[in-house]
Amino acid sequence: MSIYAKKAFFSGSYVKQAIVFSNALFGLRNSSVALKHTIGSRSISELSGAKVETPEVKAVVYGKYGQPKEVLRALKYRLPPLTPTSIHLHFLAIPINPSDINQIEGVYPLRPPFTREEFGTDDAVAVAGNEGVAEVIGVGDQVKGFNVGDWAVMANAGFGTWRTHAVARPDQIVRIEPGSIDLASAATLTVNNATAYRMLKDYVKLQKGDYVIQNGGNSGVSQAVIQIAKAWGINTINTIRKRPDFEQIKSRLQSLGVGESGATTIVVSDEDLENKYRSKSQFLEFIGDEKANIPLGFNCVSGDSAIMIAKHLSRSGYLVTYGAMSRKPMRIPASMLIFDNLHFVGYWMANWKETHSIEEYREMLDDIIALIQTKKLGSFVYEENKWGEETDEKELLAKFYEIFDKAYPDSHGVKQILRIH
Ligand SMILES: NC(=O)c1ccc[n+]([C@@H]2O[C@H](COP(=O)([O-])OP(=O)(O)OC[C@H]3O[C@@H](n4cnc5c(N)ncnc54)[C@H](OP(=O)(O)O)[C@@H]3O)[C@@H](O)[C@H]2O)c1
Fold first, then answer.
1. Phi then psi for 404, rounded to 5 degrees?
2. Cα of 326 to ligand 1 centre, how many Å?
3. If you ran DSSP here, which 8-state letter would residue 193 be given?
4. Are 237 and 294 in contact (CB under 8 A)?
5. Which one of the listed residues 108, 203, 277, 361 is annotated catalytic?
6. Where is the Enoyl reductase (ER) domain (predicted)?
């Protein structure tokens, strides 16, 4: 009989089943079994002498860098047994972010090491994916602060989230109250929402009524910026590429967030920004506020688009670059530095985490969760793709490729989220 009875994985209650079974075992050989557990709080800790069959993990892995469809493959392996200091996770929802793809291509600075150890493969591999929300399904005896049934998000990038289950150290994850927010929001808490939050907070002390200008206005990060800014009374000016459904996207972006602060969301095409509103006065007339203070800009596109938005920043303003979706370099005119005294800086979430404490990270996540709970943040467009645990791993890979085609090279502002059932 298996302690990790399959059905029970779905509810995260395998521990309860394990306990039922273990107690039976205990009755048979009570002197040889050391079992420490409490239903609903702590989990199985030790079960000496009993064979514990852990869940079968299905994962998407790569052993060399390259185009995702060329290097990714599906893998099936047993989850390593629980130790006194480890935690077992069952992933619930995982997003596909541009940085996941860059990492597989080998062009992202943070790359998880390839290893054989955990996977039992002939070649060394790493599990793809950096973000996601998981349910805690097993907690080692010496672990503090986590209980079975908790939700957890990743403390850092590089964990390898595109898998059904994982074993984690407590310092690799952060606890989230289960069910406190919806799964899609929980799955995307630590990258896009956190990036938007930090960029709005860390560069300029924004005042109510100020403006923030950003390109890639329909990206996941930008949608979070629009909502958090609105909650804090900050207006946003969002540039997006010209497209047939421009008006639809414009009204969707304008409907994001809670309007009680009176802040506005302005949407303009890159093309119009370049041709119709080129000069500062034309631009201020377009936004309808000739005294607009625009001290902060966010750039996820780079190339000419970055300079186009920088042009409209107020004197001594900041342009924060956090992405380069166009894969083009930025050519900054000297006048922007000399006469406008603009500051060009970069933001990277991984760097922020490295230089801040887990308590500061926790505080930010709590703030973001509160914004989601009060419905000020959380509305973003996503497509949920179901990933059944029962599905054969080859089928999973095929399914994954399907999702990939929708997310890469361009998501069109619709985040692809993998829901593991
Ligand atoms: N530095 C950090 O810590 C950090 C954190 C999070 C994200 N990021 C980066 O931020 C960027 C956006 O991430 P996301 O998850 O928000 O992405 P996303 O939701 O997939 O959105 C991508 C955005 O980029 C635009 N885009 C794609 N290709 C483009 C091109 N060739 N020229 C101009 N625009 C283009 C898309 O516009 P269309 O709809 O017109 O295609 C869309 O607005 C990525 O580069 C990501 O790596 C950085």
1. -55, -40
2. 9
3. I
4. yes
5. 108
6. 70-397
Same fold, 6-188+380-420 and 190-351: no
CA 326 to chain centre: 21
pLDDT tens for each residue of 103-127: 999 999 999 999 998 888 899 999 9
> Which backbone phi and psi does 73 adopt, to 5 degrees?
-145, 160
Q: What is the mean pLDDT of the chain?
A: 86
| Cα gap 288→246, rounded to integer Å | 21
Q: What is the pLDDT of residue 396?
A: 78
pLDDT digits (tens, 9 = 90+) for 324-346: 999 999 999 999 999 999 999 99
Residues of the chain below pLDDT 70: 1-52, 379-380, 388-389
Closest-CA residue, ligand 1 atom 41, reads: 412
95 lines ligand 1 (CB under 6 A): no
With contact defined as beta carbons under 8 Å apart, do 166 and 137 qualify? Answer: no
Pocket test for ligand 1, best of 410, 412, 417 (most atoms within 8 A of CB): 410
Q: Measure the CA–CA gap between 297 and 285, rounded to whole angstroms.
A: 19
Burial of 152 per CB tally in 10 Å (0-12, 13-18, 19+):
buried
Domain locations in the chain as residue ranges: 6-188+380-420, 190-351
Atom of ligand 1 nearest to the CA of 351: 3
Residue 411 near ligand 1, beta carbon < 6 Å: yes
Q: What is residue 51's predicted lDDT score, i.e. its pLDDT?
A: 61
Residue nearest to atom 39 of ligand 1 (CA): 412
CATH superfamily of 190-351: NAD(P)-binding Rossmann-like Domain (3.40.50.720)
Could you tell me if 377 and 228 are in contact, meaning their C-beta atoms sit under 8 angstroms apart? yes
**pTM attached to this predicted model:** 0.86
Question: Is 361 assigned a catalytic role?
Answer: no
Does residue 140 contact residue 117 with C-beta atoms inside 8 Å?
Answer: no
Q: What is the pLDDT of residue 379?
A: 65
